[in-house]
TrEMBL record:
SMART domains: ZnF_C2H2. The lineage of its organism: Eukaryota, Metazoa, Ecdysozoa, Arthropoda, Hexapoda. It comes from Parnassius apollo (Apollo butterfly). This is (apollo) hypothetical protein. Keywords: Metal-binding, Repeat, Zinc, Zinc-finger. Pfam families: zf-C2H2 (PF00096), zf-C2H2_4 (PF13894).
Length: 365
């Protein structure tokens, strides 16, 4: 990520600052002018606040805590440099400019917006240690390339591929910070056993062979296609491959409790837990409501945080949920999709149609 500065004078006068100090300055500008929040850590206790010892089960709860308790000029301007000992994990979920309410998906775009639109000073040509994360989907996905990961730790390790600040001279891998690179180099050891497929070295023949089998020969991919022998890490990816590439008959899994069908076991299991077993593991910290997925909880939290991150480009009204904005836009498009079967009158909102049916035709629908 390259940050843009307001003027060359600012950069020259602070040329003696370390990379960490420059990153700290950039972070303070971002935090003071947005709803982004830093994450200290993620472990079995949840997501840790970068300004106090508290941890929260969901990133939504952490964001609300930060915006209410720590989002002040005094705290942000004098935040501890320890935050930059490794990397800064920045939650940019529903990233919004606090100065003009413009929404952004990418941190880079927001930084350029602060410089070009609001004349904010930011350092250029630094090795950024600010990693963006978004939690707007049920799955953990990279905020830059949308690759999906099973754990936050794996996602964080993946970010090294986007922030190649410090390359390893032994194997060519790159890392966000010099400290991470040094830890990586130590793991190379004095390896005398070099991989025949890449430049990695290992301290024993067993480790070299295990690496080659796992990384280059695909022996860890147990699910082999019955037609072309290609291997897959996931059984259902193999089935999907056979259907799309080889024309195998699609899998149809029927729910035993209703008439719905699915093409993989994961989707069927999710349906049964959500719709029949009524599983609700995600509790709202502000009220008694419970939700099946973290994404549903995040949408619900807009009621409590009061954040209105979705603005209509036509009339500039703001809403807490994307779905609410989408429904609102039907007013401007005159999309009267709800029709009265008796008199033909159309309505933009379903609630308006129901009220009409009840008051004009005596029907409760």
């Amino acid at each position: 990520m390259k940050f843009i500065s307001k003027s060359k004078t600012t950069v020259r006068s602070n040329s003696d600052l370390s990379e960490a100090k420059k990153n700290q300055h950039n972070l303070s500008i971002i935090l003071l002018n947005s709803n982004a929040n830093p994450i200290r850590c993620k472990d079995s206790f949840g997501y840790g606040c970068a300004f106090c010892p508290k941890q929260f089960p969901q990133p939504t709860n952490l964001k609300k805590h930060f915006l209410e308790e720590h989002n002040s000029d005094r705290l942000i301007k004098y935040m501890s440099s320890k935050l930059f000992e490794n990397v800064v994990k920045l939650d940019i979920t529903y990233l919004c400019c606090a100065l003009c309410d413009t929404d952004f998906l990418q941190l880079d775009d927001f930084v350029h917006h602060l410089k070009n639109g609001h004349d904010k000073d930011l350092y250029i040509d630094i090795k950024s240690q600010i990693l963006p994360f978004r939690f707007d989907t049920p799955e953990l996905k990279c905020a830059i390339c949308s690759t999906e990961f099973a754990t936050f730790k794996l996602l964080q390790e993946h970010m090294n591929t986007h922030f190649r600040n410090y390359p390893c001279e032994i194997c060519g891998g790159s890392y966000v910070t010099e400290r991470l690179l040094q830890g990586h180099v130590k793991r190379h050891g004095n390896g005398e056993y070099k991989c025949t497929q890449c430049d990695k070295t290992f301290t024993s023949e067993h480790k070299r062979r295990e690496h080659e089998h796992r990384t280059h020969l695909g022996f860890n991919k147990r699910n082999k296609c019955q037609i072309c022998n290609e291997r897959f890490l996931d059984y259902w990816k193999k089935i999907d491959h056979m259907v799309k590439v080889h024309g195998a008959p699609p899998v149809v899994l029927k729910c035993q409790a209703c008439e719905r069908t699915f093409n993989n076991q994961r989707a069927l299991s999710r349906h049964k837990k959500k719709d029949h077993l009524l599983e609700r593991r995600h509790n709202c910290s502000e009220c008694e409501m419970k939700f099946f997925s973290s994404s549903c909880l995040q949408k619900h939290m807009a009621k409590h945080t009061g954040l209105r991150e979705y603005m209509c480009d036509v009339c500039h009204k703001s809403y807490g949920r994307k779905n609410t904005l989408r429904e609102h836009m039907r007013i401007h498009a005159d999309d009267r999709r709800f029709k009265c079967e008796h008199c033909g009158q159309g309505f933009v909102q379903k609630c308006s149609w129901r009220g009409h049916m009840r008051s004009k035709h005596g029907e409760n629908v």
